[in-house]
Description:
Blueprint: H1 6-33, H2 42-69, E1 70-73, E2 76-79, H3 87-108, H4 112-137, H5 142-165, H6 168-172, H7 176-206, H8 212-259
Antiparallel strand pairs: 1-2
This protein binds retinal.
Amino acid sequence: MPELTTAQFDLVFNAMSFTIVAMLASFAFFMMVREDIDQSLRIALTLSSIVVGVAAYFYFRMFESWKSAYALVNGVYAFTGRTFNNAYRYADWLLTVPLLVSALVSILGMPREYARGVNFRLMVAAILMIVLGYPGEIANTTLSRAIWGALSTIPFVYILFVLFSELGPAIGRQPAEAQVLVRNIRILLMGTWGFYPLVYLLPIAVQDLNTAPLVVAIQTGYCIADVLAKCGYGVMIYAIGRAKMDAEKPTRQRTTSSSGQD
Ligand SMILES: *C/C=C(C)/C=C/C=C(C)/C=C/C1=C(C)CCCC1(C)C
């Protein structure tokens, strides 16, 4: 790993510590607001809490790994010989990405059989995407990074295709209050998930793997994307749950008073 200036080292250090606290705060928030929404939609908030909880753990590990990869020697951060462990990041994604797609499918409240099928296909694609991306992330040449990256992009494109083609009709069935939010969460998902392959492409674009600006850009880039794609996304899942509940409230009160039970 390349030698870093104190500013470069600190930027990644601060980005990671910010991400840890963002994940922990989101965890507390999602756990607290879970009870605010309908039982049938609560699973989406549970999934969001698990996502940020898992990410907080792996960020803690990454933070430790980052600190042990470098030592301050005469005013610069020299590599200690203990390589930063990218496996923490990919283990995090391997667990959280399938849960993120699942949270979206469950907040849409599609027919059960259909939801199960979509969920399964999206989860398999998400796992393939992460598993194929990892060998490229730790590759020694930009060529093999490019090849694994291209393979990983196939399931990625499939996920986007499913989200746009197949979930489209489900959006049309959402109450008016929730439709805009569902469209927005899809845009957030596209925008933030699209950011990961761009960060991954940087070393290929400049045909180098091991410069200080690259290491710093990749680590901070993934941190920013993770906060948006996990914390920001979870907040939107909550907003959708609330909007759906508010939209259904009048009918629910009616059925409650007529049947006398809830
Ligand atoms: C919370 C973490 C999330 C939402 C991670 C998402 C990661 C991706 C969408 C990664 C995609 C990649 C490609 C499409 C090609 C290059 C390799 C990856 C794994 C960076």
